[in-house]
Amino acid sequence: MFRLRCGSSFLRRLLHGGTVNRDKVLQQLQVCAAEDQVLDVVGKNKAKLTVNHVSTAVGMLWQFQREKPQMLRTVKVIRCHPQFLTLRVLAENKIALMDDLTLVDMLYSFLRFNVDGHDSLVQQLVSEAWLRIDRLPMESLSKFAMCLSNLNLQNSPLMGHITSIVDQRLSSIDDARILSSLMISMSSLVSPRLRDALISRAEELLDTMDPTKFNNPRRMVQFMRNIKHSYRPLLDKCNKIILINMSRLDAENISMIMGLYQGLQFNSCDFSLAVKPRLTELIDSSTDPHSFTKLFVTLAPMASQEIRDGLENTALLLADELTPHQALAVAEALQDIQSRNLSLLNKIASVIQRNLHVYKPVEVARVVQALSLLKYQNPELYAKLRQILVKFMERSVLPYEVTMLTRVLSILPCQRLEEGVISRVEEIVTQCNLNDLNTISVAVAKWLRNEPSYRHNTTSKYVRLLQTLNRCGRERLQKADRLDLLLEELKYTTGEWFDEILLDETMVTLKRMMDQIHWTNVPALCLFLTKINHICPPLLDRIATVAIKDIDKIHHWGIYAIILPFSVLNYDSADELYDASIQCVTAHISSFEPHMLVLLGYTLALADYFPEELVREIFSIEFLGKLDAKLETLSDTLTMRTRLRLMELNRAVCLECPEYQVPWFHENYCQQFQKKGTVTASPMQQQIYNMLGEVLGGINCVRVAVVTPYFYTVDFECVLDKRLQPLPYSGPSTLQISDRGKVHWGTSSEDTTRDVLPPGAQRVAVNFLDSNSFCKNSHHLRGNALMTKRHLEIMGYLVVQVPHFEWNSMELSTPNAWKEYLKKNLFGQLSS
After folding, report:
1. Rounded distance, CA 53 to CA 106, Å?
2. How far apart are CA 711 and CA 731, in angstroms?
3. Cα 349 to Cα 378: distance, rounded to the nearest angstrom
4. Burial code of 814-830, b = ≥16 C-beta within 10 A, e = fewer?
5. 797 - beta bridge partners?
6. Beta strands of 581-680 (E only): which ranges?
7. What's the rounded Cα separation, in Å, for the pair 186 and 160?
8. Cβ pair 409, 390 in contact under 8 A
9. Of 444, 561, 666, 790, which is least packed with CB atoms within 10 Å of its CB?
10. DSSP for 28-95?
């Protein structure tokens, strides 16, 4: 009866707006306009503060901070304020009285103020939230997961519990913000099945969310980067939403998104073209060190020289105000653009040197990497960096960290390596993956070469370590049982050690796992086979079967990687695969990035495929203009590679598909390219030249490094008449192309009779083929060498190819044998 009367009294006061027991403290908090006012109210009402008051005060303090720019935030000042300590004590005492939402919000806010994770308040809040975890609403669960990540508990059993809850209740999550936050927090614990389910749900929510909320797709991209899984349909959707919001993105957001895209190897022409003008707009407003650093890192690599110079001048003015981490970011950007601004380099190096004690191991490694690639000269700084790296190495117990430090230490000069470094490497080497083992082997090989006594002491510590690396690598391959994990380890594994020690064992392992080849891992496997230059018919046949069967499931961007080994390694038993791939490409031709379409066209041309729709698209004026714009945003290396492949594709189309009437427009490009390079003959080529002179009756019957129409370079050229007699050269004739693309032989001022070959005469091209023209594991000719032969024959040459393994064989070990070999190849083909 008493409770009923109390309830009725409260209801009357609520309904009639009575003034009795009005919460005056809450009212005072709600009208506060700054942190000091909130803290003042807390100080004056300590004894009256309830859970609601504490929650409101802490939430308001963080909201005020959140609304300020990063440079103006006063988190440390607030955290050290006496009344903030009061709030912490009160919060800890009232945890049991908090409802679920307040509990998680309180934890989140205190962590935003950098309250230590070992503080009793934080630990009790986490413990209480764990007890209530099964009943937390998804929004609070998402925020709690974010807090655990901030506390480095992303791999904890508690995060595992959250992952299980999300797995069970995924279909009930209808907010993209909640889902994307959860995806990031639990990314290290998701299974392949849950990963696919999360991506599928994310795609659905992106279609219904507010497109102005660009942080949701940004977090989804971050999730994919975290799990190293590039799912193109979701990436494309995220990218479209980000593009819609480009005018609202600041330099920090753009820098973050670009870093995620690079990590996923995702290139978007539309994004690249939109980013550059947006960043240029932000130059005038990016005047503080924080925003300018983000701008410099993102804009400098893609800016014109004029804008780049302006950015470097501003960086020089702001250098002394940079934090240690901002200085490191600027140093890495300078390395990206290969800056030669010595004043700026010295300034940035000075800031870094003053703050070496602040950096973590990975950051010191980044410093060494950037400065060494810039070829920056400062022995004193390098000596300090080396001392720090050795101390880190001697303390580290993490395999990936020891590997990283080993690699960076090998960059720095040293007379003799510390015993502690070698001991630490020996202790962790059995825990390393294949990529780490490969990295360590490169470093050990460097140290071995620099060891003064290694030539006289084959049982040195380095040799023993290399033997351990060899054993660990073989054992890891023999124990491998999951193809996806193995391909991830092999992704960046390459070099002499791998080729000599592990390549054969790797191929045995891959063939053992052939039944695990699936449409999802086919692109990665194809890229690896191309990289190691190893032709394996059983693997390629299996890849072709899987790809043809599931071609509709494979994203069209994966087609390039799939056909790459078949074209590059010249595997000619894949007609059905090429047909299916061409159909997929033409169906999505407008969706490809310009540079990727060029690379794809060249790869098909290697295998003698020239789909008309693809060729006409690539050589349209509109496409070439778009390609030029895209190339301005790519790295110098990728830009040079794309331009070279476009020239080679242009040449191939002109020679092999004249009916397409594509003009040859790379004359100037080839001339400039030719001027930059220098033709040098190897000892074997010089030997062949001398032998050809003897076989043909004189050096004047042989020309060296002849540039053909369309700018192929033939090692040696000669002309044989209809009786197979060599015709001497009397002058340096040139080869030209008519306006219509017809090939004709130019005139020589000394011998006009050489304009046209005598009836029945034949031009002969002799090319020496070194090991780069063949697959590593066989004498199988690669696709580019075969295409060169095809094109020379179209231009009227008889092509004689001299493989290195034949010229250097035991059978051809005397001058007479070499001459007989050349005679047989030169005259035998013509006489037959």
Report:
1. 12
2. 20
3. 9
4. eeeebeebbeebbeeee
5. 763
6. none
7. 8
8. yes
9. 790
10. HHHT--SHHHHHHHHHHTGGG--HHHHHHHHHHHHHHHHTS-GGG--HHHHHTSHHHHHHHHHHHHTG
Amino acid in the structure at residue 150? N
Q: What share of the chain is helix, strand, coil (3-state, %, to 5)?
A: 70, 5, 25
Is residue 120 within 8 Å of 80, Cβ to Cβ?
Answer: no
Strands 762-769 and 797-803: parallel
Query: Residue 800 carries which DSSP code?
Result: E
For 519, phi then psi, to 5°, come to -60, -20
Across the chain, which has 832 residues, the per-10-residue mean pLDDT values are 42 43 85 91 90 93 88 88 92 93 94 92 95 95 95 94 96 95 95 95 94 95 94 94 94 93 89 92 92 94 91 94 95 93 95 94 95 93 93 92 94 80 91 95 85 57 88 96 94 90 95 95 96 95 96 92 96 93 94 94 97 96 93 87 97 96 94 74 83 89 91 92 86 42 38 59 93 92 96 95 90 88 83 58
Helix (H/G/I), strand (E/B), else coil: 418:
coil
Class of residue 436 by CB neighbours under 10 A (exposed 0-12, middle 13-18, buried 19+): buried
Nearest Cα to Cα of residue 368 among 359, 630, 95: 359
Q: Going from the N-terminus, what domains does the chain have, and what CATH number goes with each?
A: 24-262 (1.25.40), 678-829 (no CATH)
Distance in angstroms (rounded) separating the CA atoms of residues 355 and 325: 9
Collect all residues with Cβ–Cβ distance below 8 Å to 511 and sequence separation of at least 6: 536, 538, 539
Q: What is d(CA 525, CA 517) in angstroms, rounded to the nearest whole number?
A: 8
d(CA 359, CA 723): 77
Contact by Cβ (8 Å): 528, 557: no
Kindly state the tokens that stand for 435.
Answer: 């990529």
Are 388 and 364 in contact by the 8 Å Cβ rule? The answer is: yes
Tokens of 213: 């909320």
| SS3 category, 142 | helix
Looking up tokens 């999550």 gives 173
Q: Say if CB 599 and CB 642 are below 8 A apart.
A: yes
Residue 110 CA to residue 141 CA, distance in Å, equals 17
d(CA 55, CA 435): 49
